[in-house]
Design a protein that fits this description.
With 116 residues, the chain is mainly alpha-helical. The protein folds into two domains: 29 residues, no CATH class; 64 residues, no CATH class. It is built from five helices and four strands. A hairpin with a 2-residue loop joins β3 and β4. The longest helix has 15 residues.
Length: 116
């Protein structure tokens, strides 16, 4: 959902959803939101050992990792899970540790400072 600016929101529906629901761009729709008690939050991907070991050796980076909001951790772990080559893993591990160590840098299209 995206805020319009007047207190209301726009809900963007995927093309397949619009097709099945017989709606078009600009149509008003009623939406029901329910709490899913079965939902389990947290990272969908496990932390790779090559990153876990690196964090264990860097207490500042580990402390800053633990302070990250869950959604940021999930984003980083999903990114790491998609890395294919050893070179990519090593390069991104170094960049992540640099960012989490408190250095001012860019990592994952974000500016980092102070480990966040």
């Amino acid at each position: 959902m995206m805020p319009v600016g007047d207190g209301s929101f726009r809900l963007y529906l995927h093309g397949n959803v619009r097709k099945v629901s017989n709606t078009a761009v600009g149509d008003r729709v009623d939406v029901e939101v329910r709490f899913n008690a079965k939902y389990k939050n947290g990272p969908a991907h496990p932390m790779p050992m090559w990153f876990r070991d690196a964090l264990e050796k860097n207490p500042v980076a580990k402390k800053n990792w633990e302070a990250l909001v869950p959604s940021r951790k999930k984003e980083i772990l999903r990114y790491f899970a998609a890395l294919k080559s050893l070179e990519a893993r090593e390069r991104n591990r170094a960049r992540a540790l640099h960012a989490l160590s408190g250095e001012t840098t860019r990592f994952m299209a974000r500016s980092w400072s102070g480990g966040k």
